[in-house]
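User: Some background: our group keeps a shared notebook of sequences we're curious about, and every so often someone picks one and asks for a predicted structure to add to the entry. Today it's my turn. The entry only has the sequence so far, pasted here. Could you supply the structure so I can complete it?
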Amino acid sequence: MEKYEITIITKEPFDTAHGKDTKDTPVKKEIESLGGKILNVQSLGQKQMAYQIKKETAGFYTVITLEIDPTKVLELNKKFGLKQEILRHLILVAKAAKTEVPRVRKEVVETKTITPEVEEKPKEEIPEPLQEPVE
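Assistant: Of course. Here's the predicted structure to add to the notebook entry:
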């Protein structure tokens, strides 16, 4: 058995869809009929959708974490597609990938401000005006 996460969008809240008892919901019945075990149900509340789905502009989002045999996932996907109360659903494998995050070393870069060396020009001597002898 593998862990899966199912996100569903329904017209009504998931917990109150068919009675007050959450065990009566058709989604839970389908999962348990295929030998799956529900681990966690998390309601994300009602949200507006970017576009209409089956003439609905808002839906109740619910995330269900479950364990089920991988060979039964395709059948569960088909059954969810036929349910009228489910607007959309998405089934994902809940395995966390074990990857090492490479550590980034910060290198210290020395920066030097380069100022252009300007050669001092010798001050030009202004020649004195020539005086003509007065006669």
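Suggested note for the entry: The mean pLDDT is 81. The chain is about 15% helix and 35% strand.
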